[in-house]
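Run log // design_07
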């Protein structure tokens, strides 16, 4: 495939556009899974907020992955390790960007019944800053758990996908090649979900409502994991794994494929 010349800004715009497109398509295809348990009609009700949140988040994910991968190309790392480390860097960067939004979202969800009128995201963010500040008790509460959640996920997700894709031979038939990539992406999203879910559980405990009002039980990531394990058992660290795999297994495959095809098209035509 020929490639039109272009500088950093053009390449970056392609990566951001393709990444955002991947997030948009993934939300549109997978959102019904979030509502099918409670209603059979109106599958796309409430889809706008996830689109507004996930589209830029996915753009950050793929753009930073490409940039870290390029940067690591100057280091003496094997290609396989480069993908994993670039994924880790991508996840850590993504976590720093999205954590404040996660804190606000969880706060709104946890206190939904306490509001006579649901405040906007901006109003709730300002309320959190005024009350608790910008630090680890305020807008960046649970940052270490979010770093672990996104860092570990992206490390496995990108590392597994690109390493395995380079091992399994390319299929000349387009449909079979699509299925090859989809299958690898599906396994990538599934394994990444299985590996990172303890961080997800810790994040939910830290950012969510505490068991005793006025008393903070869950403070730090690994201490929260240890507390959950001690009090509730090993399986409690994997609570919610099945619905997560149902969402992020096929969803992860969709994102990778949309990104790859969209990025290739943009490089060729734009």
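design_07 sequence
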């Amino acid at each position: 495939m020929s490639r039109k010349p272009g500088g950093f800004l053009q390449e970056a715009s392609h990566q951001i556009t393709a990444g955002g497109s991947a997030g948009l398509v993934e939300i549109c295809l997978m959102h019904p899974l979030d509502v099918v348990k409670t209603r059979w009609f109106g599958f796309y009700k409430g889809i706008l907020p996830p689109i507004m949140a996930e589209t830029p988040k996915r753009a950050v994910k793929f753009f930073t992955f490409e940039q870290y991968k390029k940067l690591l190309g100057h280091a003496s790392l094997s290609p396989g390790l480069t993908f994993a480390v670039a994924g880790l860097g991508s996840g850590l960067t993504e976590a720093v960007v999205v954590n404040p939004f996660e804190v606000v979202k969880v706060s709104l969800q946890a206190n939904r019944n306490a509001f006579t009128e649901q405040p906007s995201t901006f109003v709730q963010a300002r309320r959190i800053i005024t009350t608790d500040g910008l630090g680890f008790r305020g807008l960046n509460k649970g940052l270490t758990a979010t770093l672990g959640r996104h860092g570990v996920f992206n490390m496995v997700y990108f590392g597994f996908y690109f390493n395995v894709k380079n091992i399994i031979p390319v299929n000349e038939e387009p449909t079979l090649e699509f299925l090859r990539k989809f299958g690898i992406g599906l396994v990538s999203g599934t394994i990444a979900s299985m590996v990172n879910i303890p961080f997800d559980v810790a994040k939910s405990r830290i950012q969510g409502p505490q068991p005793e009002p006025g008393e903070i039980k869950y403070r730090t990531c690994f201490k929260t994991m240890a507390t959950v394990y001690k009090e509730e058992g090993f399986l409690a660290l994997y609570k919610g794994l099945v619905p997560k795999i149902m969402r992020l297994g096929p969803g992860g495959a969709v994102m990778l494929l949309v990104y790859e095809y969209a990025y290739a098209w943009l490089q060729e035509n734009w």
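Residues 174-207 form the longest helix (34 residues).
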